[in-house]
Amino acid sequence: FVLDSGNVSEDEIRVFTKIANKIIQKKLETIEEKIDKVVEKINGEEQRYSKKLTNVAFFAQRNSSFDQKNTIQPYLINRLNDGKAFNQASGIFTVPINGNYHFYFTALKASAEISGTSIITVRLWANRNQKEKTAQMLAEGHVNSNDMHGWFPVILQATVKLQENDTVEVELLVGSIHESENLEHLITSFGGFLVSPEIV
């Protein structure tokens, strides 16, 4: 509204000003409440999204022996797969977000009497079969024993910085991996987890 200062007293101007200030203040409070609700909703979504992304871990096992050379290990039991980044059928972990990851693999070398060789070689790879990425060997386990009846553990570990869509898998190059087939005493396992996400 417009006041004609020639026809309105100072008291009336003060009253109008007071009313106008109250109206403006009320509108500002309403706007602030709406902004607070939007910010609260955004923060809640960010927290849920962040929690979902940073909760990445998997643990898989086999319940049978394995001797297919130059191939990756498939896994028959997937006990943990937070983040759904591990494919137990293919044995491949696909990195969901950039960050530092830790991986581990354990197995038991079959005796030379059973496998026909005293040697076993197992490798942990990143991007083994990705054409657009450079393959990187993260770790290698190698055992060579002349003990025909000996059983020897193979353990691999690696902590590495990876990018989204990188892949990690285990490859058997030589020898044979033995498994007890006892569900309460499984030996072959492959696992990993996100240590820390990349902070942008």
UniProtKB/TrEMBL annotation:
<feature type="coiled-coil region">
    <location>
        <begin position="21"/>
        <end position="48"/>
    </location>
</feature>
<keyword id="KW-0175">Coiled coil</keyword>
<keyword id="KW-0732">Signal</keyword>
<dbReference type="InterPro" id="IPR008983">
    <property type="entry name" value="Tumour_necrosis_fac-like_dom"/>
</dbReference>
<dbReference type="InterPro" id="IPR001073">
    <property type="entry name" value="C1q_dom"/>
</dbReference>
<protein>
    <submittedName>
        <fullName>Vertebrate gliacolin-like protein</fullName>
    </submittedName>
</protein>
<dbReference type="InterPro" id="IPR050822">
    <property type="entry name" value="Cerebellin_Synaptic_Org"/>
</dbReference>
<dbReference type="Pfam" id="PF00386">
    <property type="entry name" value="C1q"/>
</dbReference>
<feature type="domain" description="C1q">
    <location>
        <begin position="51"/>
        <end position="200"/>
    </location>
</feature>
<keyword id="KW-0964">Secreted</keyword>
<dbReference type="GO" id="GO:0005615">
    <property type="term" value="C:extracellular space"/>
</dbReference>
